[in-house]
């Protein structure tokens, strides 16, 4: 990594440099306080929304809160000396009341989106997304992963109703991401995906780094060393999605699982080499699950153990290819792939 | 190359002085693990135990909404780590050195020409279509074209598949899962939005292609179709079919249904087909010996029982090649999870029956928060159908305690003990100091 290390460190420094002058915000600080204002009491007396939330019709950003000052309360409540309404962290949305209010024809304009007003002690009520999709056709935006025009930054948000990751999500998320990866990227940085999927470059598997996250459905949890061959044989394709052959070899060599047949650490069953009647013949096993063989025997065609016997003109005269092989490959393929020429040397 | 790298590094450092971002998330984890690992020694001797004690520093930085004159919503994401072995080298060190490190993810992403072109450049995964979570040092570009009620999306990617610690990418000598030194491909898709209040209703259908080479030889050549159909707010139907152009047969297929039947009940069903030998590199000599097929059929139900209690049941029938004829295997899981306030707990029973072996397993776990302190416990056990290394039982348990310190720092210690088929007694400890902080400069625009 020698030459690239400065680049990596510089990139990290550049990204960290973006923090200059910013405020930090913990999750506790971001939590919205319960409401301390009885909306219903005021609405029932015929007080219009804009009487207190003055200037909202001209507001082009949620950054402008338009909360009434203490003096506004004192107009009706003589001698009012209570607290000024607390300024709350705004939703991370781009929204213009000025652009929306003129287009609403209903008499109770605000109620079209603010269907429920919060009361004392209740959690703050934010208009649900149906309030937007009732008028705007955003389905195409979702299909194309285009949430940003309205949502400023969706990282760290949890979906309340739509897109919740319910059911057997660990099993389903992969196939769902194939057509919808850009939608996933609206909320998830790839660092999140890489915790499990970047097996070649990650520091350690996630259950080692985060033992405290017992509720997470981490891959390879616990004593996976003892289970890996069982789960690999049950779903051989799954290993090859993340692990190269050398990854397997790195451990197998250290465990001295590369010894000769019949050696003290040889785990091949009796009859493996040449006894088809034993039920453990290596050829039948390779037909069933060649990936398992690759865990140790995939050092390249020139060094491969299989080539010694199965090459054209070698001691085993029978073709090792499966019956359907010839219908899909012909002599021209030999020229396309150096691997073929390991056996077809003529 | 070295000069280019230095220039890029200098440019990035200069940029740090002038660039600002809406949101910057930083996490740093200093982690020490200590435990025994087995080594085989030389042929004819018993395995020996060595102690591995790697000390890690893991750094993640994500800056979003970075102000710049070119791209909208520019993101800079870096996830990197370094480690030093205080004792014997761990088996997955990946190099012959005690000091090592890697870049897990590092990319810049943003949008150009309004929302028309999305780009991602650097070390990242390509997830769409038949790319199959391909981790590349390269780039991906996605062109989005609205066509009335339809949306057309064209994407293309190219780069060098990633291996460990910047070592060789070639399949034989690396951890690179795709075993190649060049990969490229793309996807074309059409979206059709269905009107209605439920967000996301519509159809997205795509075709994709992927090719990976190793020194010019084909490693993978696949084409595929994928689709997602969401007719209403509760049903999601999606699927994929992948076809190996080199071997002229299907490598992978999935059809899945996700249905929120009621507010409390979620039903899933899926069928999955794989040809595992086609997941081997076409440049591997082992790829010529097999043409196997496997099918999984099954589904599950999740039910919110109330009061924070959820139950889930899943079952899949696996049809795999057996001795002479197909073998019908089974995979089942029952899980219970409870969350209330500062307490959460759960349990699982798993059953796996495959041709070669199988197991019955169980897990119980719990977490309790006590103000700034939290405690977790996690016990996992498996009983194997056929003995593994002469044993049929594996039990491990972990106890973890942590405290949330000031200003985003937290400290965690964990101990794991157990008996496994490969270790009569095993004990590992882990200690870490983590820093997680989000810096926001503005929340709205």
Tell me briefly what this model is.
Chain A is mainly alpha-helical and 346 residues long. Helices cover 39% and strands 1% of the residues of chain A. Chain B is globular, with a radius of gyration of 25 Å.
Considering the chains and any ligands shown, give keywords for the structure.
A: 346 residues, B: 445 residues, mainly beta, Porin, 1 helix, globular
Multimer state: heterodimer
Q: pLDDT below 50 for ≥5 consecutive residues: which ranges of chain A?
A: 15-32
Helix content of chain B: under 10%
Mean pLDDT of chain A: 80
Overall pLDDT level of chain B: 90
First-last Cα distance of chain A? 41 Å
Instruction: Please give the count of helices of chain B.
Output: 1
The CATH top-level class label of the domain at 293-445 in chain B: Mainly Beta
Shape of chain B: globular
CATH topology of the domain at 293-445 in chain B: Porin
Q: CATH homologous superfamily name of the domain at 293-445 in chain B? A: Porin
Give the C-alpha Rg of chain A: 32 Å
Helix content of chain A: 25-40%
- Overall structural class of chain B, as computed from helix and strand content, comes to mainly beta
The share of residues in extended strands of chain B comes to: over 45%
Q: What is the number of beta strands of chain B?
A: 23
Description:
The complex is a heterodimer of chains A (346) and B (445). Chain A is elongated and about 105 Å long. Chain A is mainly α and 346 residues long. Among the domains of chain A are: 112 residues, no CATH class; 64 residues, no CATH class; 47 residues, no CATH class. The longest helix of chain A is centred in the middle third of the chain and has 16 residues. In chain A, helix 13 packs across helix 14 and helix 16 packs across helix 17. Chain B has a domain of 153 residues: Beta Barrel (Porin). Chain B is 4% helix and 65% strand. The two termini of chain B are 41 Å apart. Chains A and B meet through helix 1, strand 1, helix 9, helix 10 and helix 11 of A and helix 1, strand 1, strand 3, strand 4 and strand 5 of B. Strand 1 of chain A pairs antiparallel with strand 23 of chain B.
């Amino acid at each position: 990594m020698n030459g690239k290390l400065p680049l990596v460190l510089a990139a990290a420094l550049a990204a960290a440099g973006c923090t200059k002058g910013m405020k930090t915000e913990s999750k506790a600080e971001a939590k919205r306080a319960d409401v301390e204002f009885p909306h219903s009491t005021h609405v029932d007396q015929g007080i219009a929304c804009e009487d207190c939330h003055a200037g909202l019709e001209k507001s082009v950003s949620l950054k402008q809160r338009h909360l009434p000052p203490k003096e506004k309360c004192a107009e009706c409540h003589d001698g009012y000396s209570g607290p000024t309404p607390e300024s709350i962290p705004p939703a991370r949305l781009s929204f213009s009341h000025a652009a929306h209010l003129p287009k609403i024809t209903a008499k109770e304009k605000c109620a079209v989106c603010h269907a429920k007003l919060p009361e004392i002690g209740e959690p703050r009520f934010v208009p649900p997304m149906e309030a937007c999709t009732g008028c705007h056709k955003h389905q195409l935006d979702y299909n194309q992963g285009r949430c940003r025009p309205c949502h400023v930054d969706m990282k760290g948000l949890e979906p309340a109703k739509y897109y919740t990751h319910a059911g057997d999500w660990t099993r389903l998320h992969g196939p769902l991401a194939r057509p919808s990866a850009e939608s996933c990227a609206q909320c998830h940085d790839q660092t999140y995906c890489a915790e499990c999927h970047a097996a070649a470059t990650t520091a350690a598997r996630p259950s080692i780094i985060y033992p405290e996250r017992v509720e997470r459905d981490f891959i390879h949890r616990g004593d996976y060393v003892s289970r890996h061959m069982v789960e690999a044989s049950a779903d051989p394709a799954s290993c090859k999605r993340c692990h190269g052959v050398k990854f397997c070899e790195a451990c197998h060599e250290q465990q001295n699982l590369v010894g000769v047949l019949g050696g003290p650490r040889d785990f091949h069953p009796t009859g493996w080499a040449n006894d088809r009647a034993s039920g453990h013949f290596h050829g039948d096993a390779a037909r069933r699950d060649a990936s398992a063989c690759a865990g140790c025997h995939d050092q390249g065609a020139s060094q491969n153990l299989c080539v010694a016997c199965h090459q054209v003109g070698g001691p085993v005269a029978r073709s090792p290819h499966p019956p359907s092989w010839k219908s899909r490959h012909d002599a021209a393929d030999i020229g396309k792939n150096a691997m073929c020429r390991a056996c077809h040397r003529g | 190359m070295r000069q280019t790298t230095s220039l890029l590094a200098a440019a990035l450092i200069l940029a740090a002085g002038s660039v600002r971002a809406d949101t910057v998330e930083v996490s740093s984890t200093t982690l020490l693990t200590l435990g025994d690992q087995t080594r085989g020694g030389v042929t004819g001797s018993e395995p020996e135990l060595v102690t591995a004690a790697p000390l890690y520093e893991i750094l993640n930085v994500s800056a979003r909404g970075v102000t710049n004159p070119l791209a909208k919503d520019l993101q800079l994401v870096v996830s990197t780590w370094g480690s030093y072995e205080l004792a014997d080298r761990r088996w997955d060190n990946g190099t012959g050195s005690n000091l090592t490190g890697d870049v897990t993810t590092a990319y810049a992403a943003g949008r150009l020409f309004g929302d028309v072109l999305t780009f991602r450049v650097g070390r990242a995964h390509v997830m769409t279509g038949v790319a199959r979570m391909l981790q590349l040092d390269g780039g991906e570009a996605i062109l989005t074209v609205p066509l009335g009620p339809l949306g057309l999306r064209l994407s293309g990617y190219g780069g060098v598949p990633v291996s460990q610690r910047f070592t060789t990418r070639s399949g034989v000598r690396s951890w690179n899962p795709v075993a190649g030194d060049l990969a490229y491909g793309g996807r074309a898709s059409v979206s059709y939005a269905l009107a209605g209040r439920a967000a996301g209703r519509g159809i997205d259908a795509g075709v994709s292609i992927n090719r990976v080479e190793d020194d010019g030889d084909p490693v993978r050549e696949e084409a595929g179709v994928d689709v997602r159909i969401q007719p209403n707010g509760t049903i999601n139907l999606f699927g994929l079919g992948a076809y190996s152009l080199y071997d002229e047969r299907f490598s992978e297929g999935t059809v899945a249904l996700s249905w929120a039947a009621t507010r409390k009940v979620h039903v899933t069903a899926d069928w999955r087909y794989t040809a595992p030998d086609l997941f081997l590199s076409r440049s591997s000599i082992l790829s010529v010996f097999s043409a196997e097929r496997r099918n999984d059929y099954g589904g599950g139900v999740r039910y919110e029982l109330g009061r924070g209690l959820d139950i889930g049941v899943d079952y899949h029938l696996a049809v795999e090649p057996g001795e002479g004829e197909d073998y019908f295997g089974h995979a089942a899981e029952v899980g219970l999870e409870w969350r209330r306030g500062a307490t959460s707990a759960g349990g699982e029973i798993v059953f796996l029956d495959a041709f070669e072996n199988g197991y019955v397993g169980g897990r119980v776990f719990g977490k309790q928060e006590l103000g700034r302190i939290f405690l977790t416990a996690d016990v996992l056990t498996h009983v194997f159908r056929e003995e593994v290394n002469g044993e049929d039982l594996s039990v491990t348990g972990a106890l973890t305690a942590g405290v949330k310190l000031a200003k985003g720092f937290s400290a965690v210690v964990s101990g794991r003990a157990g008996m496994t088929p490969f270790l009569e007694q095993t004990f590992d400890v882990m200690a870490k100091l983590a820093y997680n902080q989000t810096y926001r400069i503005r929340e709205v625009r």
